[in-house]
Amino acid sequence: MLCYIGGSESSEHFYVINEACSMFAHTNPLHLDVFQSVVRFEAEVVAMTAALLGSKEKASGGQICGNMTSGGTESILLAVKSSRDYMKSKKGITKPEMIIPESGHSAYDKAAQYFNIKLWRVPVNKDFQADVKAIRRYINKNTILIVGSSPGFPHGIIDPIEELGQLASSFGICFHVDLCLGGFVLPFARELGYDIPPYDFSVKGVTSISVDVHKYGLAPKGTSIVLYRNHEIRKNQFVAVTEWSGGLYVSPTIAGSRPGSLIAGAWAAMMSLGKEGYLEHTKAIMEGSKRLQKGVEEIPELFIIGRPDMTIIAFGSKVLDIFEVNDIMSSKGWHLNALQRPNSIHICVTLQHVPIVDDFIRDLKESVETVKQNPGPISGGLAPIYGAAGKMPDRGTVQELLVDYMDGTC
Asked: pTM for the complete prediction?
């Protein structure tokens, strides 16, 4: 399990958010008139996050607004649903399609299945960024949405958000930016002097953003935010039911009842840390990430995927089976993500990793050397999923394997 908080202050931070959660464990913001304090907490968390992501620039088209959700996937689902309905009302599109880079999160596949939207996945360019020209070729009369990430989950690379924004504006379609990982790092990294390209509502054409507070925002798990450029787009997120015998029912998110405790915990985390706290943490994790990247680059058998912009370092090998390296790293207690296209693994650097970067590099060097001395097919670890060839099997096979695994038969 990935934990974003670390260091001597972690106990105090957990105490603060746990106290806030316990105080509001009985609350449900579905009932606006009853739990007014939690409603205010949500509004303030949304407003503080919007201030980080472009509202200060007074993005054209209205007031930035949004809601808290249960996580990045729900934020993305809601942004896609809102974009679909907004484009139906604006252009009359009834057979919606959306276009995402190959590096886009799998939540978009889920959204496409849930909301009956045709999904086009477009290969990334040589720098592992969204290929703007390739995406343009897929745009047609049914396109409702294109997507960019800041950064992408696999490789930690920011897509060309300005170019994608120009593309979306020229065709009059929606553009969602996935800031789930970067939302509570990039604004502070830029303030610290890091060269961060444009990524938020200051970019013309961006219509929605997803950002997780439960990652680098250090809020309790189950807290994310979906933001919209204006109320005209956001109103399509709501479901209003007027014809059932129970009276008027209006809900802004996928869940009806929501845990007010998590909203209170997120508010407490942000108020407790403040700008100075986030700046301090960002400085530590960015410096740690650069040290870790340098250490990987000094291992001749490995190569870094693209040019990481933030705190995710992905690496592969042209001479070794990287998944065998990953298996050995797992046996040493490191839990890394396996990637494909190309085969690689990545680490997402958090505050917990900052003091142990040298330990990671040492174990990685030893793992690489072990694989060099003992080449051969994968015998365990990722073998049931990737197979000896290191390639992902088809969707049906993966589903069966996961079902078997959860049933205890694998």
From this structure: 0.89
